[in-house]
Design a protein that fits this description.
Blueprint (H helix, E strand, L loop, with lengths): L20 H8 L6 E4 L4 E4 L32 E2 L6 E2 L1 H10 L7 E7 L2 E7 L8 E8 L8 H10 L3
Antiparallel strand pairs: 1-2, 3-4, 5-6, 6-7
Length: 159
């Protein structure tokens, strides 16, 4: 043992201690940068090049909200109307739910996900992590996706 720990029977690698990083990189490259080994093919094959997706050039539609009559400028955060399925403002839905409910001190109407809203009770204004859901409103049907959402999704995702 030479006092450095480990196995001293390893053979030294010749000529690699004084090489620059570029020389090490050149030595490490094999022929065909994009070549990959396919287990099912049993040989090397060329990896396909990434092609950027072609996005739609049409502008997003700007429909009018049936509740307030104003145009929906941010259609990505719009929700379905329960009856007609037309897009409505997020804030208009909260106002519609809040109009028919009596809220106590510490209560708030909040979106809880999955097309649902709820009346949430917070114990104190400084403890927003501790809450109780008092009532849940099923606003959107998860099973039936609106037609207007399909056309909007083509602007954001092409996969």
């Amino acid at each position: 043992m030479n006092g450095k720990g480990g196995n001293n029977r390893r053979k030294p690698v010749k000529g690699r201690d004084n090489d620059t990083w570029q020389e090490v990189q050149k030595r490490g490259k094999k022929s065909g940068d994009n070549a990959r080994y396919g287990k099912s093919r049993g040989s090397m094959y060329e990896r396909p090049r990434w092609m950027p997706p072609v996005l739609s050039r049409e502008p997003l539609p700007v429909p009018d909200c049936p509740y307030c009559g104003k145009p929906i400028k941010d259609i990505a955060v719009a929700l379905n109307d329960r009856n007609s399925g037309a897009p409505v403002h997020f804030d208009c839905v909260i106002a519609r739910i809040g109009g028919g409910e009596v809220l106590e001190k510490g209560d708030a109407i909040t979106y809880i996900g999955g097309g649902r809203f709820g009346i949430i009770h917070f114990d104190g204004p400084q403890h927003l992590r501790v809450f109780t859901i008092k009532k849940i409103f099923e606003w959107e049907d998860k099973e039936n996706r609106a037609e207007w959402r399909k056309s909007i999704s083509e602007h954001y995702s092409v996969t």
